Amino acid sequence: MTQQDLFTQSHRMHQNSLAAYSTEQQAISKRARDILRHFAGLGEAVTDREMMRIMGFTDPNAVRPRITELTDAGCLMELGKVKDTVTGKLVRTSCITGKGRAENGTARKS
């Protein structure tokens, strides 16, 4: 049973809503792939805000949830914390992992 099957069993939804949900799921996957591709091109760890700027977004929420998703999946890892230049708060820095490089097709040769 798919995630969408479970979702539709617990909620009676209109077909248009289901189509929109499916389209959004695909868009989310594309965003995560784009973020992973950008991380693969970097040689250093970056903050969510830095990745947001690298990708041309103005809202950190355009990348933050996908970075968390990719971290949970083992494609990215949190390397440390730095003081954010805008908020002054400690924020994570992330970098791509070997699994992330393999998923992205950019695995390094030994």
Structural summary, described in words:
- The protein has 110 residues and is of the alpha+beta class.
- The chain is built from 5 helices and 3 strands, in the order ααβααββα.
- The protein has a 3-stranded antiparallel sheet.
- The model is unreliable at 24-28 (pLDDT under 50).
Task: List the SSEs and their pairings.
Elements: H1 3-10, H2 15-41, E1 46-47, H3 48-54, H4 64-72, E2 76-83, E3 90-96, H5 98-104
Helix pairs in contact: 2-4
Strand content: 15-25%
Order of helices and strands: HHEHHEEH
Structural category: alpha+beta
Number of strands: 3
Uncertain residue segments: 24-28
Mean pLDDT: 83
Radius of gyration: 16 Å
> Helical residue percent?
40-55%
Count of alpha/pi helices: 5
| Cα end-to-end separation | 40 Å
Q: What strand line-up does the widest sheet have?
A: 1-3-2
* Shape summary: globular
Question: What is the makeup of the main sheet?
Answer: 3 strands, antiparallel
Looking at the chains present, what oligomeric state does this protein adopt? Answer: single chain
Write a compact overview of the structure shown.
The protein has 110 residues and is an alpha+beta fold. The chain has helices spanning 3-10, 15-41, 48-54, 64-72, 98-104; strands at residues 46-47, 76-83, 90-96. It has five helices and three strands, in the order ααβααββα.
Name the features:
110 residues, alpha+beta, three-stranded antiparallel beta sheet, 5 helices, 3 strands, 53% helix, 15% strand
